[in-house]
Amino acid sequence: MTATTVETVGLSQGTWNFDAAHSEVGFSVRHAGISKVRGKFTDVDATLTLGETLSDSAVTATIQAASFDSGDANRDGHVRGADFFEVETHPTLTFSTTSVSGNEGDFELTGELTIRGISKTVTFKGEFNGVAVDPFGATRAGFEAKTVISRKEFGLTWNAALEAGGVLVSDKVTITLDVAFVKAA
């Protein structure tokens, strides 16, 4: 997917809709300096628009902040509250590309990520997993990508000091995408 057309890798131009049932938008963050807390957002909507080349393509995504799920109800409630996402005031996280580049297998997706009303440029490095037609005739494409952000840059500054030194929640958060899109009819 360099300067050649997207058709080179089996993709077709046009609109591709996010397949929430076969996708995960996840995260991990170091907890107490000794382990990682992992989770996901369960309410995501995204659109992939493929042009003739990658540079002509775009992705937009909206995530409902209240869909944050780390598997612990108390933690999830805290993260949805005023100390972190403040979902009543900032109900969504959004992403919109500013550039896409890559080759037949790897790509970089750069865009504006907005969390808690603060927008920053981030770059996801990813891999194209292929395209297939399912038994029902739908054309699907899969992608994996990841980036690391500083949560403090997005106003997520709450923390607690540990008795032995350090803090409860690390500043660095890894965002991982394992996503599928379906070609619109």
TrEMBL record:
UniProt xrefs under InterPro entries: Lipid/polyisoprenoid-bd_YceI, TTHA0802/YceI-like_sf
The residue ranges of the Lipid/polyisoprenoid-binding YceI-like domain are: 15-182
Q: Which domain of life is it from?
A: Bacteria
SUPFAM superfamilies assigned: YceI-like
Q: Indicate the transmembrane segments per the record.
A: none
Q: Which family does it belong to?
A: Belongs to the UPF0312 family.
PANTHER family, A to Z: PROTEIN YCEI (PTHR34406:SF1)
**What name goes with this protein?**
Polyisoprenoid-binding protein
State the organism of origin: Arthrobacter livingstonensis
